[in-house]
Structures are given as C-alpha cells and as structure tokens.
C-alpha cells in the first residue's frame, strides 16, 4: 500500500486465536466509520491450532488487511511439521504469505519492530526501547509507526532530542502534530482495545469495546 486514501483507519492487533474478538473489534471500528481495517499480527496463537481456521476466515471475510505476527509464524512452522495439524492448507498459506510490514503514505504497520530489511523474521519479536526508537526517528523524521505485540497502548516520541514513553488510555485522543516522528503500540483485541487513525486530522484515538477474554500471551 503506497497511497493514503482512507480517512479513518481502524487498527487492531493480537487476537491470539480468539475469532470473536476479531468480530467484535471489526464491528466496533466499522460502526465508528472506519473504511479500512488493519490487523497488526498475532491473528492466531501458536498454542491454539483449533481456532486458526476461524481466525483466518474472519480476517479474510471482513476484508482486514494484516501483517504477520510471531505467533502466526510459529503456528505455521509447527503445523507444516505435523501430519494432521487440523488447519486447512489454504489457511496456512494465507498466514505464511502475510507481509512483515505495510505502509500507507508516511505510516508503517508492523507487528513489533520496523527494521524488517535488517532483522528479517526477528522484527516480529522484541520490544522497542530507546535505542530502537532513536534509530527509527533518525530514519523516519516525519514517520508514524503503528505496532502491536506489546499489548499495552503507548506512544513513544521525541522532545528536545529526548525520547519519551507515555501510556495511552482508553478514550484518549492523541494529536500527532508536533509529536512526529512517533511510535504507537495499539493494544490488544483480547483486552478489548483498538485504535482509530484519522489520517486527515492526523490523530489517533484509543478505544475499548467488550472483550471476549482477558488472558493472552505474546
């Protein structure tokens, strides 16, 4: 994706094998007027083979654009080594073919870290600390990185050359003007958290809906 053509983009991440959380998150975001939905990875859970088909079906049926998460990768690698994994081959192929990153204009979508060319599959794991943030800011002076993996909503930005880490609460809207470049962790579907990016106004809103469960793994 290269052009920024959607006014409201709904951001979700980390459904961890819970198809109902995908349904609920997508319905909430559509009701808020989002014309494009993006899933930031860990659609499935590497310990929940039985729900992988359903989760992939939700993403495809609801026309959700997605990137690959570490659980998606681990599940497919494990399934390929089993005689009867209980997952349809076309669903495995869908997960395997997911990209590690996507871009819309100056905005990048990843599961964890943005340095895909340097890190390869390792970009899907690990947190973003001060050093990673400084590298991203230097390479993307007006960029916005939207990520999942860490589950707790947060924004990382720079003021007077100092890197700041700030939590983002449900119901909070963050005006991105003056905060770019910045990195935003978007929360997890299984905690009932999604975000809405309004591209025209350049702002993000953290939203909560009723989750299906409250336990998850990275």
TrEMBL record:
SUPFAM superfamilies for this protein: Metallo-dependent phosphatases (SSF56300)
Similarity comment: Belongs to the metallophosphoesterase superfamily. YfcE family.
Name of the protein described by the UniProt record: Calcineurin-like phosphoesterase domain-containing protein
Pfam families in alphabetical order: Metallophos_2
Endpoints of the signal sequence: none
Ranges for domain Calcineurin-like phosphoesterase: 8-158
Source organism of this protein record: Desulfosarcina widdelii
Transmembrane segments: none
């Amino acid at each position: 994706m290269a052009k920024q053509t959607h006014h409201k983009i709904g951001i979700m991440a980390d459904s961890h094998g819970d198809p109902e959380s995908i349904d609920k998150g997508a319905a909430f975001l559509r009701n808020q007027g989002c014309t494009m939905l993006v899933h930031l990875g860990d659609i499935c859970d590497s310990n929940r083979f039985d729900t992988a088909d359903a989760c992939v079906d939700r993403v495809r049926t609801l026309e959700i654009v997605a990137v690959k998460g570490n659980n998606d990768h681990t599940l497919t690698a494990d399934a390929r080594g089993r005689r009867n994994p209980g997952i349809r081959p076309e669903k495995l192929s869908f997960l395997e073919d997911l990209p590690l990153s996507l871009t819309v204009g100056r905005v990048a979508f990843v599961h964890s870290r943005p340095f895909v060319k340097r890190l390869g599959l390792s970009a899907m794991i690990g947190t973003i600390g001060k050093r990673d943030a400084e590298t991203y800011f230097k390479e993307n002076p007006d960029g916005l990185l939207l990520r999942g993996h860490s589950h707790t909503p947060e924004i990382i930005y720079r003021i007077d050359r100092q890197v700041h880490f700030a939590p983002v609460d449900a119901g909070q809207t963050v005006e991105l003007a003056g905060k770019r470049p910045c990195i935003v962790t978007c929360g997890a579907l299984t905690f009932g958290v999604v975000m809405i990016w309004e591209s025209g106004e350049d702002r993000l809103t953290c939203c909560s809906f009723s989750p299906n469960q409250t336990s998850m793994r990275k």
